[in-house]
Amino acid sequence: MFIPRQYRTPKVLYGLFALEFPLTVAVLALYGIAAPDLYRTKLWQDGADNGFNSNPSQVIYSYANYQPVSKTPLVWSSFLTNYNVVIAVLSMFLMLVKGIMFITRVFPPLLSVLVHAALTALYAFSVHAQVSKDLNDPKHPQNGPPWYLTKSCSVSFKPANVGYCQQAKATFAVTVIVLALFAINTILAIYNTIPSKEQKLARHASSDSGEEGNMKDSPDSDISNRQQWEMQNVPRAPRTPGTTGGMKSPMTPRTQAFNTLGGNEGNVVSSREVT
Question: Which residues, including other chains, have CB under 8 Å from residue 120's CB and lie 6 or more apart?
């Protein structure tokens, strides 16, 4: 199966890289500011004071009275805060690495699919956790996203929490945008792994030329070429004096010597006269 190593839409990818940089810096800053617990518990308590969700002191009350302890809702847990910081740092690292790899042409579409699909899954879980339910208090159930996402920040029980409410809204909005960006990158990478007609033709042409080159470089072709070259460079036999100007009886100094030794000097003279 042929999978292209080049992108058909490089300009679009450069644009997505340019958009990814400020968004990654934004999520890293927002998640870093929120860690470890700048406003999570405050917004949880503010919602409890307004009757929007459970009360964070309910856990302490259960411990003090030896009652079954309710699990901390995911939306208010420290796990979510730490998780967001980790994926933000990972996103920054991968952005720098894949940017360098893309410029140096060692970031094929198939690798892009794997990287961006993983980032999409990580941010999808973050979005899911930020809009998860809080059903610890049956009298004040939160059946959907937390109050700071569904209501105006002006309903805060404490005016000091208005700024934290706005910061939490901004964090969620940037997370959704980054999730959409990585999803688009994943779809675009999958599109680039599917070879176009032009790429298929170029692939077939290169394979055909490679086969011809292999035939030329084969041992049999080397032997035939060498034999042809040797036949062309074999020196021709020099013409003897007897064959110059037509087919005549050969007359060489060696023949004269034998005739002289045999007493055929007359024949030699006559042969000279003939020549």
Answer: 179, 182, 183, 185, 186
